[in-house]
Amino acid sequence: xxxxxxxxxxxxxxxxxxxxxxxxxxxxxxxxxxxxxxxxxxxxxxxxxxxxxxxxxxxxxxxxxxxxxxxxxxxxxxxxxxxxxxxxxxxxxxxxxxxxxxxxxxxxxxxxxxx
Length: 115
Known about the structure:
Elements: H1 10-21, H2 24-29, H3 39-51, H4 60-63, H5 66-72, H6 80-92, H7 94-107
């Protein structure tokens, strides 16, 4: 008998809506993935993890059901090596990502101005 998998779909729906209705992922994270096909799906997994379970990075692949990985855009399984390589890529480009994020916030008129 197959095992049932249960997970919250709210954060996945939110991430999909952001991806469809804004340019967030391509504007802020586009262009830094290199040849990695799992980079953007991994970033979506990290965001989903933070919104839902907030498990440790070294345990995230144990807690993420295959169904979530497929929904986020992973092609097959992801290895620990790919996970850590993409995390390293994020860390190396942190300043550029923050700059792109600030530009995206301004483009979306999300900047809060204090009086």
